[in-house]
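User: quick one, fold this
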Amino acid sequence: MKIALVTGASSGMGKEAACFLAEHAKKLDEIWLVARRKEEMQKLEKQYPDVKFRIFAMDLLQEVDEDELILALNVTKPKIKYLVNASGFGKIGSFRETSEKNNTNMVRLNCEALTRMTYIALPYMPQDSYILQFASSAAFVPQPGFSVYAASKSYVLSLSLALNQELKARKIHVTAICPGPVKTEFFDVAQEKAEIKLYKKLVMANPKKVVKKAFLDAKKGKTVSVYGGTMKAFRCLCKVLPHQFILKFIK
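Assistant:
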């Protein structure tokens, strides 16, 4: 049985990834969805009645919740053709005005949970499989006012680049998706203590287009997927200019 495993599937980029797979990955037997909000994942079942979904309502901050997923994998022993790690969140605001709980949970979800899910999935991934890790353009440079989130996404980017090299012998392709701001629920959660900066509002991307490019780039074997000319230029600047210089303009 060939499946895709998508985390963060109840909203945002995870939901868009699940929709893309439902519409385009016709050789999959099932799409396994992981997220906290069961009712939101059930909406996908109604939206795509011809697609077989398996829903795991679980909180990736609670490791015990993963037992059901691990058991299902052990029993069915599927071939995971796509692992999409899209679960994560961010909080806008300075380090001190963002609560310790929010900052530490960002690290736990964006980094630790992503790492655990990759460990869980890898034994079931055959040759010519794909791991799509949702990082962010925030991974390219430290971001005051978004410090822990940016740091956590730098981890995702670095891990993805290293994993891609390590897994080449198994023909498992790893792609880090690094979009700029995207029109999703993300910023509804993020804007608790501070609002998103105006320049970020002006470059908000369409999530469907970001996800489509991500899968196309993964198929091409690209290690990093960056949507839009503005973010591609930003990535180039972060490569050639000292970070201390860039920080003067984004703080």
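User: anything notable?
Assistant: The chain is about 45% helix and 15% strand.
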